[in-house]
Amino acid sequence: MHALSGVAEVLGLPSRKHDPSPFALMAQIEKGLAVEALDRVAALLAPGDSGFRFDIVPRATLARRKAGGLLSADEGTRVARLARVWSLALDVWETPEAARGFLFRPHAMLEDGRPVDVVIRSEIGAELVLGLLGRLKYGTAA
């Protein structure tokens, strides 16, 4: 698993000197991530695309969530998956622009799907993309 401190930072959770506990992160997601976590992730992955956040949480649902201030556990899990992938993509590609280029460009090993869409779709999709990024990081075929 990629360093949880990077994931927590992307989500805008309070920083700690050491990696946060995986159980603390899971509990925070189950309790409900702040809607601002979605805003942060959307701004990092797709700056200038105000509609990208609705690919993660539908518009009407997000309007309801903003009233309460918290995402559901499922929505928070989706946002945390994106944060995890973004953190590793940034580590591999080294610049936000290059990381976005990878995430938003169709990839043959994902049946020509865009990695970002595959991650949003499911946890299995996220594992596929994380696997690709791991192979890129360590110099094997991807």
UniProtKB/TrEMBL annotation:
Pfam (any one): Xre_MbcA_ParS_C
Domain Antitoxin Xre-like helix-turn-helix: 25-84
Domain Antitoxin Xre/MbcA/ParS-like toxin-binding: 89-139
Entry-linked InterPro entries: Antitox_Xre, Xre-like_HTH, Xre/MbcA/ParS-like_toxin-bd
Signal peptide: none
GO MF, one example: DNA binding
NCBIfam families with a match to the protein in the record: TAS_TIGR02293
Protein name: DUF2384 domain-containing protein
